[in-house]
Amino acid sequence: MDFHSAAESRTLMERCWGRAYWWIMIVVLGAASAALLLSKDTAAWPAVLAFGAWTLVTFLAARRWPRPARVVHALGTIPLSALYVTASSNLGPASSHMYLLLTFFPIYTASAALGPAGAVAGIGLAWIFGDHILDASETQLVGLLFWVVVGFIGHAARHFAQIIDRQYQKITALSLTDPLTGLGNRRALEEDYARFLALAKRQNLPLTLILWDLNGLKAINDRFGHAVGDAYLKHLARTLRESARQSDGVYRVGGDEFASLHLGLKSPELYIERVKKRFPDVAAGWAVAGTNGEGSDFLRVFETADLRLYQDKRSSQDRSNGFAGISAGNLDA
User: Fold this and answer.
1) Cα separation of 211 and 233, whole Å?
2) What is the layout of strands, in order, in the sheet containing 257-263?
3) Span 147-183, pLDDT tens digits
4) What average pLDDT does the chain have?
5) Model-level pTM?
């Protein structure tokens, strides 16, 4: 089960930008209110209050739909900016400059989130609602060029953010992946365990942790070489991956130690026996989270499974010479 996809979790950059956006809106709202208080201009207060109400409503919506709420809020501030500038009697000739300044951030936000489509939407709204503010033809041309540049900057920022995001996901994937087998590593196991456990509680299903240990790896390395030992590890990894369901998680947690997580597994013993039929030279131990006094703490469940693994390993050492599965046909190159 891939719990690390972008569809299921927002990136660190997305979360940081989301928080920064709403803090910027609070600063803008505070600055507009302070300007009105200092100028004693009461005519623009309805626009400021409307902006505050609009920000509150979309901020609450952002808890569930973070990015769409930001875009909708940004585009909605454009007509509110026009209303504010129009109602402010003390701006005078500076009203066009103020309007351009207030529309900078909404157009940038829309284009950074949606690309060219967001830029066109933002520029279109700014042009429609600012037609009476940018009355001179020269001012309208300057405003249009300004908005196009802002849209280009937002689109460029979107492009670079996507590059950084892809690199971040690659680095994250590398930190959670065992390079030899391509399975998740110990860190991935611990992170996925928490997600599996939450899902198990919501669906009222048992969560089983199985630990696997390859028998005789040292003897294999000594007799055939480390290349064959690595191939044998990859063979076990492939066996575990093919035996598991798509919803299960499979990991390599140590040199010759593997683990798997199973949600709703009815019989761990039967599952282990099926794997052993395909790969005899493996020992296994299991534990079910939240049962038999084991609790749901990862380390406690891991220790219980590890104890059963140790017992199975001792009993299986007399039955296996560590080489039963080695043949040219079943090892990865």
Assistant:
1) 15
2) 249-252, 257-263, 207-214, 282-288
3) 999 999 999 988 888 888 788 778 877 888 999 999 9
4) 85
5) 0.60
- Cα(40)–Cα(19) distance, rounded to whole angstroms? 32
Q: Which of 285, 241, 306 is nearest to 2 (CA)?
A: 241
203-220 in b/e form (b: 16+ CB < 10 A) is: eeeebbbbbbbbbbbeeb
Banded model confidence at residue 11, pLDDT cuts 50, 70, 90: low
Domains, the chain, with CATH or none: 12-173 (no CATH), 186-317 (3.30.70.270)
Query: Looking at per-residue confidence, does 271 or 330 come out higher?
Result: 271
Mean pLDDT of 79-86: 90
Which positions ≥6 away from 193 have C-beta within 8 Å? 209, 261, 298
Rounded Cα–Cα distance for residues 43 and 37 (Å): 11
Q: Are the CB atoms for 119 and 111 separated by under 8 Å? A: yes
Give pLDDT tens digits for 17-59: 778 889 999 998 888 888 778 877 788 889 899 999 999 999 9
Q: Which two tokens stand for residue 39?
A: 């100028």
- Residue 148 tokens, joined: 């196009």
How much is the pLDDT for 143?
Answer: 87
